[in-house]
Amino acid sequence: MRLGVRRREQRFQDAFLQCASCRKTLFRREFDQGMMVCPNCGHHHRLNAKTRIEYTFDEGSFVEEDTDIQSVDTLSFPDYQSKLDQAISKTGQPDGIVSGMAKLEENPVAVAVSDFGFMGGSMGSLAGEKITRTLERAADKKIPAIVFCASGGARMQEGLLSLMQMAKTTAAVERCRSVGAPFIAVFTDPTMAGVLASYASVADVILSEPRALIGFAGTRVSKQAQVVKIPDDFQTAEWVLRHGFIDRIVPRREMRDTLSDLCRLLGGRK
């Protein structure tokens, strides 16, 4: 009897899910076909790196690079190694950045995609190294670099080594700039703190998904620092667009075509 109930519950969970924003019950098949965007309220649910790559780049074109490096608990920070092991087991990845080469409408691009599911997409030494290598590949080949950002900021368990990645990745952006290789950053929910304050905010073109959380300090800290009431949409993509910090908000369904147009316009090969 209980086994039958569990099977019915499992079938229900396989067929339906609830929107994280409006709480409406959705058909899973319709949800997946809509690139995990709620058809009722338009909320863009978070994607893992693998799904993001499948949605964005030419089918079967992605070739992963930088698979020979891994995070190290250099500071012997309490519980860091166990949290790393849990994140690796959960995502099947050695860190929160997946990097490599891919194609957009047959044009080669250097790619890095952040996965928020891996320790909040935090930037440690490995993530910083993968971002840097991605930008250097773009500079060496004189092709566009595309980086999807999703991070709560620098990884506190790596201390100063994590903060050093801010300078290293920003220097790699300058190398792209020196040879004319365009760098496009895509902000997804959330893009915060050390990632926003380094390579992400100095891209040639900055796009964002709708309603993505974008900022340096969290909303609670920002409220404490303000002497006036902050707007309801504070630190959303729409708010930072109005203040000139990003170039355009692009719905997920239009992202591939927009990136392809930008690569052709800014220097992608044909």
The count of DSSP E runs of length 2 or more, i.e. the number of strands, is: 10
Helix/strand/pairing class, anyone? alpha/beta
Uncertain residue ranges: none
Number of separate helices: 10
For the CA atoms, what is the radius of gyration?
A: 19 Å
Q: What is the residue-mean pLDDT, rounded to a whole number?
A: 88
- Beta fraction: 15-25%
Largest sheet: 8 strands, mixed
Architecture overview:
The protein is of the alpha/beta class and about 270 residues long. Helix content is about 40%, strand content about 20%. The chain has ten helices and ten strands. It has helices spanning about 1-15, 30-35, 50-55, 80-90, 125-140, 160-180, 195, 220-225, 235-240, 250-265; strands spanning about 15-20, 25, 65, 95-105, 105-115, 145-150, 185-190, 205-210, 215, 250. The strands form two sheets. Strands 3, 4, 5, 6, 7, 8, 9 and 10 form an eight-stranded mixed beta sheet that branches. A hairpin with a 2-residue loop joins strand 4 (about 95-105) and strand 5 (about 105-115). Helix 5 packs parallel to helix 6. The model has no long low-confidence stretch (mean pLDDT about 90).
Task: Give me a quick take on this structure.
The chain has 270 residues and is an alpha/beta fold. 41% of the residues lie in helices and 18% in strands. It is built from 10 helices and 10 strands.
